[in-house]
Amino acid sequence: MLWLLLLVGVVLLAVLCLDVYATVFVPTGQPGPVAGRLYHLTWRLWHRRFGDGSARSRRQLAQLGPLLVPFTVLVWAALLWLGFTLVFLPWSPAESGFPGWFTALYVSGYSVTTLGTGDITPSGRWPRALMVLAAASGFVLISVAVTYLLSVYGALARMTALAFEIHRFVGRDDGLVPADVLVTVARADAASELSDWLASTASSLAEVVQADDEFPLLHYFHFPDERALPVALSDLLEVVTLCRTVLSPAAFPALTGGLVIAGTERIARSYFTALVRKFEGQPVDGERLMQERRAAFDTAWQTLSLAGVPLRAREEAWARYDWERRTWDEASARLRAGFGYPAFENGGPHPEAREGWSAFPRSR
């Protein structure tokens, strides 16, 4: 029986090694088998409790990411401790009135935490070698966990800084909308300045998308304010879409067909595409989404026309705008609604779409 438990301990340690390797060292956006199930289950329970779409629920959902950071490390440490406890069992007789399982738990605990009290000395080559291995494993796990968490928070800082920059650039706090950015560009003849900013933003966004692939924990950090990247990127994509589809190509050649504007659109769209593959999101009403698309176009057209900005013919602009918005606005609306943000500019998700929706990460 003890040797069977030893085998179970070896399997646990092997699963732990695989989980840490897949989560930390393989930059695919897919956590290991333990971490993936832990994140999936925790998000499911957390969202079921707090995901009602209100402002308060967004604040509650925002707490999950920071909680998962220490929780992941604690689960890894517990697996390491339990695994070596089972491995030590065959060589752990009762000591001073303590049962053998407690001796194994004690020796494993001070070995993997590198405390090294030394009041119990193993006899035999295998137990001593296992104690060294346990201490080395604990040291490596602590080092990897600290390095990983510092990297996660470094990537998170870049993500929130980018979202904050886009939010402030568009001027949401001042009551402005993406079309107002283009009005300013036209009045100040600042197309080159907008292109430069988009190039810089695209570079920062590419780093964020890459970090999102490297650190699966980042998927669970959702901020309830202007640091919310899904909301900020919707504004960025709206700016890019208006440039490519509504502005006059003769007056703004770089903004309607330039390399920078096209690259920015592809990188931003890839963020939503990648996350929707991992999070099913909330279904949104197709008719409501179409109405929102048309309303956004009409508002932008009116704003730009009144400001005297050179535009395409209205029907041509609408056809282009409608086609380009379809490539990203449904994914954006589903993802935003699933994370508790308003799915539409003029309100939250359609009430009829709330029945049976799921905003949980798909099973790995």
Automatic annotation (TrEMBL):
GO-annotated biological processes: monoatomic ion transmembrane transport
The keyword Nucleotidyltransferase belongs to this UniProt entry's keyword annotation: no
SUPFAM superfamilies registered for this protein in UniProt: Voltage-gated potassium channels
UniProt keyword annotation of Membrane present: yes
Domain named Potassium channel: residues: 78-152
TM segment ranges: 67-91, 98-117, 129-150
A Pfam family of this chain: Ion_trans_2
UniProtKB keywords: Ion channel, Ion transport, Membrane, Plasmid, Transmembrane, Transmembrane helix, Transport
Official protein name in the record: Two pore domain potassium channel family protein
Organism of derivation: Deinococcus wulumuqiensis
